[in-house]
Amino acid sequence: MTRTWPAALVLLAAAVSLTAQAPVVNAVVEKRTPSADFARDVQAVAGRPAAAWIGYRVPIVRRPNAAMQTTETCCGRCRLAPSTDLVVLARVQQGAVAEVRPLAVDCDVDAGGTTLVWFDGVSAEASVAWLSTLVTQSEANRRISENALFAISQHAGAAASAAIVRFAQTGTTQMRGRALSWLAQRAANEALPVIDAALKDPELEVKKQAVNALVRFPNQEGIPKLIDVARSHPNSEVRRQAMLRLGDSKDPRAVEFFAQLLLK
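User: That's the sequence. What structure does it adopt?
Assistant: Structure tokens below.
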């Protein structure tokens, strides 16, 4: 019995090491501990003369249909189980963020020999706060803004939910629509009050985006609300949008709803 202890300790040490290290190969890795001001930490790296990447990991929202990478796309060590962490990578140069890449990686990423400043122990709250600045400040660069919002949507925890709700309630029409879409994939009790408000918004496009968001609820939990919108929303364009989304859903409740309309 005692002989199993050394082997168990080796496996435990390997697991801890694998969790702590940056999930990259072929990189010049500098490890850092984040300060209380993570945005300032990133800016310090961005102010260097040469371009570099920064990276860190945070807990990811669990998805029932989470897909693993295949061995054909794996470039290093591959894990058998789906990732429990979201890896956020950002390329910084000339004092600014040039690219954001949120990844749920199941194997290591090839960095192509570039410098990677890896921050161990970034909290979800600090990550969401920093990414939120990119969502708003980078609205002119839509790719960075969208990727930052997507990264927030993949964070587990209340900080991410609160940020997505805030973006779904404020900002440009396009930003609100994107946020509504990501919010709908989280818990229904978080999303429904915001979607209800969006369905009453003066802008028709926001109301349509709210309808589209209902389809993205996990386990088709948005179907009852979608039927209610299709039946009774005061705007005919919104009712039409809801009917189109119900038709796409192929849900039995939607079939019953259409049958009632046609046979009454």
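The longest helix spans residues 4-20.
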